Hints:
single chain, two-stranded antiparallel ribbon, 6 helices
Amino acid sequence: MKTGVAAVTFSAVFGVSMFGGATAAADPASDGVFDPVNGPIAQFENPRPLPAVTPTPDDWEPMWPFPFDQTRNQVTEVEINAEREMCQWYNAQYNIIRRQIAGLNNAIVRNNGNFDGPGVPERTAIVVGNLDQSLQFLTPRVLTLTQSHNHAGDMYFPLYQGDSFYGLWQQMSNVVNGIKARQPTWFTGPSYHRMQHWGSKINRSHVCR
């Protein structure tokens, strides 16, 4: 792909996903020019490697709103502890990583879609490292979540927001694979938008309060 075409497609697909639709999808901060919570958006700042999350004891408890109060007997203590620990990761690092991806996108767009532009490989390596580290933490926990089927054959998660953590994990995996493969259009851009959807759903549910 020629770099000129890459730049237009990358900006149009991935950039619109973030700058056009992220405000409604991403909480509490947006990926626009100004973050109403933190002031000027951090997308232009250089990303930093994040420390590995080490779970610690806390007083977190799962939520059982209707109809999840009806599926409570299907949820194991292992799943509850997994969600507890995923919430610790979410509260500590989700929004940082989300903004780092936005910053990487901006850097590539400003270099006409060139992943080898000045400073882009270094930024990419840090973002990929943080995503890989987060996925290493999330994967064994997400895979403990029970997936059940109702009488109509539809799949559901008995644990409240289990579907959101599963969806977030899936889309983060797509994002990092797209970045590694330098596929910013059909693969990374839509996946980033869906990642924000699931992250926002977790935030709005207050499950990680």
